[in-house]
Design goal:
single chain, 419 residues, alpha+beta, eleven-stranded mixed β-sheet, six-stranded mixed β-sheet, 13 helices, 26% strand
Length: 419
């Protein structure tokens, strides 16, 4: 195909990184979305780029915790029964993938994608002169009692990290206090995941990448995207809500949680769940400062030091993509966080919500749509779209341009798993 024009649909981290990489590889790229870059889920996440994120939620120990989760009272997990009942294909497949052989394939695939993405993030942050936003001091999993630390899921997580050579250190209460003096003495143990980094503003990082894309000649277009259609000459037309159409040689769908609805317009049923999450920013309530993100495993929240203040991010709410927000989970997380450290006043209103698009095996699709040459897919990154966007871009660009040597094995991310 000689036409080097590409439309990248979606201006979150995955879409922006893909646009940048295709541009670097010589393509004429137009980046399109209804909002400015980095305004959706890529804005509000915890900002962690961690190799520990290779652990999917549907791991083999899920079966033992499932009865408790179904009671719908967990601090870190809640669900709308109507959503689950209406999406049984996704729900049963998600739980069914909590098998050892699938888990082994998923962890290996995600480890490769995270390692590639971390290197790409460092390169990009240096190029856009935002490397100062990156912290290299890891993050902490906190346990309020020994039972939590010794639980089957936590034990499997440590064994898996050890299997992949991820640097960690177990801390007792005194060692944790030395590392993070601002924390109250409510945690019996901690796991310091040293093989990870974090940023102080994920939204600002996405915007910096998007600004570099535009500065290098890329086109950024705001449009309420409706569908695409094959033009019959090997090209694709992108159609917005006004009916206006633009022709491109290739199209990349990187619309995150809205990819499901977009693909449905093409008659494609994407089995996707929406792990919604909330955040608010708070002032620091004491004289000390939190040095790195923390994950309170019992409280079900992550607290990250950000440019805007301390960002409290909740766990999972399984629900319809655009259902009304429910502040209950955030309020419970805030109460737990106030037990853990001197959290100050809320710094903003209203409550923010993001949607983590999750496929049944917790791996994204990074591939060409089967039977539709020129239509490429990059979505389904669950909790780790911000951290794995640049690696996704590197793999997708190599596949699109027919490279003989690929940066990692594409088979775990093939579209034919579900489509």
């Amino acid at each position: 195909m000689t036409d080097n024009t590409v439309a990248v649909l979606g201006a979150g981290m995955v879409g922006v990184a893909t646009a940048l990489e295709l541009q670097r590889r010589g393509m004429a790229v137009t980046l399109m979305d209804r909002r400015a870059p980095g305004q959706e889920t890529s804005y509000g996440n915890a900002g962690v780029i961690a190799r520990s994120s290779l652990m999917p939620f549907n791991h083999p120990r899920l079966w033992g915790t499932l009865p408790g989760l179904l009671r719908n009272r967990s601090a870190g997990f809640c669900y709308n029964p109507a959503f689950v009942a209406g999406n049984l294909r996704w729900a049963t497949s998600f739980v069914g993938n909590a098998r050892q052989n699938i888990f082994a394939e998923t962890t290996a695939a995600l480890d490769g994608l995270i390692r590639l993405s971390t290197a790409e993030h460092r390169r990009l942050l240096a190029e856009v002169q935002e490397l100062q936003r990156l912290r290299d001091n890891g993050w902490l999993f906190l346990y309020r009692d020994a039972a939590g630390f010794d639980g089957p899921g936590a034990e499997l997580g440590r064994a898996t990290m050890a299997q992949f050579g991820i640097a960690t250190q177990t801390l007792n209460a005194a060692e944790l206090q030395d590392l993070e003096p601002v924390l109250k003495p409510v945690f019996a143990k901690a796991l310091w995941i040293q093989d990870s980094c974090s940023v102080d503003s994920p939204g600002a990082v996405v915007r910096a990448y998007a600004d570099a894309f535009v500065a290098r000649g890329g086109a950024l277009q705001t449009a309420d995207l409706r569908t695409v259609r094959h033009a019959g000459d090997g090209r694709w037309q992108v159609i917005d809500s006004s009916g206006a159409a633009r022709d491109f040689g290739r199209v990349v769908v990187a619309l995150g949680p809205w990819s499901q609805k977009f693909m449905a317009e093409l008659g494609v049923d994407v089995p996707m769940g929406f792990e919604r999450g909330y955040h608010l920013h708070y002032a620091a309530g004491g004289s000390g400062a939190l040095q790195r993100p923390i994950y309170d495993t019992a409280g079900g929240y992550v607290l990250s030091p950000m440019e805007q203040g301390l960002r409290l991010s909740t766990g999972v709410e399984l629900n319809h993509c655009d259902a009304p927000m429910k502040p209950r989970q955030l309020e419970a997380a805030e109460a737990s966080a106030r037990e853990a450290l001197p959290l100050g006043e809320r710094l903003e209103q209203p409550l923010w919500m993001g949607r983590r698009p999750t496929l049944p095996d917790s791996r994204p699709v990074i591939d060409e749509m089967p039977g539709r040459p020129g239509l490429w897919l990059a979505f389904g990154h669950q909790h780790i779209g911000f951290s794995t966007g640049p690696g996704t871009a590197a793999l997708l660009a190599s596949l699109m341009l027919g490279d003989r040597q690929l940066p990692l094995d594409p088979r775990p991310f093939r579209a034919s798993r579900f489509l």
